[in-house]
């Protein structure tokens, strides 16, 4: 990966930064999917296992396979107690899934599709490994529409002429593009929806410590002179709404898509 790309090297920091957001959005996503119990699931781009854990606790799966290109994230995923004996994790590429056809009842991409360099290939791969009539689904932050949870941070960084790495395929998070990708993979009964969620931080210090572990911004923030970093924090403090107790509640918007695999 190049220096300007987003890297996922700390599963614990990611848990605080994005894992909690992933599970909040994932709850709404799974309610929408309403899958039956006992399915075999593939979690593509499972990261540190935040959504995988949700699958295990909410859906009573027969088995879950998680793949991800980051060994650091996989190492963290393997420590989740709820996944012991339920999920298996391995290094893998969303565009070349290491599974045979008809291996799963469902394949999902949680907060991943905009990181796939060729999203159409990733969707086709999910469809390939899922049985006929099975489910292929995804959700992703609406990054082009301002739905990213930490858009305020990125906006302030851009206003300071700081470089903020972007996902390889941000357009893939738009509802109309998701719909095109799913139809392009030959999936049936394709539908989409927007998911709006909230998360409350104890106070600004809680928020600021969290974003200092951001895969997209941590290195740039760490490299800033202390005075400049303090100025950025001050602008964010003024920008983010806080209640009388100092709690900061932020909203984020994700787009979701689902479809069924056609008979052979």
What would a concise description of this structure say?
The protein is α/β, with parallel strands linked by helices.
Keywords:
alpha/beta, 264 residues, Rossmann fold, 7-stranded mixed beta sheet
Largest sheet: 7 strands, mixed
Based on secondary structure, the structural category is alpha/beta
- What is the CATH C-level name of the domain at 11-146 and 165-199 and 253-260? Alpha Beta
- Overall mean pLDDT: 92
Strand content: 15-25%
The side-by-side strand order for the widest beta sheet comes to 3-2-1-4-5-7-6
Instruction: Give the helix tally.
Output: 9
Radius of gyration: 18 Å
Measured between the Cα atoms of the first and last residue, the distance is 37 Å
DSSP summary, beta strand count: 7
Helix fraction by DSSP (H/I, runs of at least 4): 25-40%
Which sequence of SSEs, written as H and E, runs from N to C? Answer: HEHEHEEHEHHEHHHE
CATH topology of the domain at 11-146 and 165-199 and 253-260: Rossmann fold
Q: Could you say which overall geometry the principal axes of the C-alpha atoms support?
A: globular
The residue ranges in which pLDDT falls below 50 over 5 or more consecutive positions are: none
CATH architecture of the domain at 11-146 and 165-199 and 253-260: 3-Layer(aba) Sandwich
Within CATH, the superfamily of the domain at 11-146 and 165-199 and 253-260 carries the name: Vaccinia Virus protein VP39
């Amino acid at each position: 990966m190049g220096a300007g790309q987003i890297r996922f090297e700390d599963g614990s920091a990611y848990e605080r930064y994005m894992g909690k957001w992933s599970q909040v959005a994932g709850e709404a996503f799974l309610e929408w999917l309403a899958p039956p119990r006992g399915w075999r699931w593939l979690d593509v781009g499972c990261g540190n296992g935040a959504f995988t854990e949700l699958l295990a606790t909410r859906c009573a799966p027969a088995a879950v396979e998680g793949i991800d290109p980051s060994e650091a994230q996989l190492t963290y995923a393997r420590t989740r107690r709820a996944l012991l004996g339920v999920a298996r994790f391995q290094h893998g590429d969303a565009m070349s899934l290491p599974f045979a056809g008809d291996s799963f009842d469902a394949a999902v991409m949680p907060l991943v599709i905009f990181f796939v360099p060729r999203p159409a290939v990733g969707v086709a791969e999910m469809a390939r490994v899922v049985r006929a009539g099975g489910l292929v689904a995804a959700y992703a932050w609406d990054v082009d529409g301002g739905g990213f949870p930490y858009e305020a941070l990125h906006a302030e960084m851009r206003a300071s002429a700081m470089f903020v790495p972007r996902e390889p395929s941000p357009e893939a998070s738009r509802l109309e593009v998701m719909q095109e990708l799913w139809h392009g993979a030959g999936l049936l009964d394709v539908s989409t929806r927007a998911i709006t969620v909230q998360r409350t931080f104890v106070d600004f210090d809680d928020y600021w410590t969290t974003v200092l572990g951001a895969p997209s911004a941590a290195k740039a923030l760490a490299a800033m002179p202390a005075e400049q970093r303090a100025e950025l924090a001050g602008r964010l403090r003024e920008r983010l709404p806080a209640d009388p107790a100092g709690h900061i509640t932020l909203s984020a918007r994700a787009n979701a898509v689902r479809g069924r695999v056609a008979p052979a």
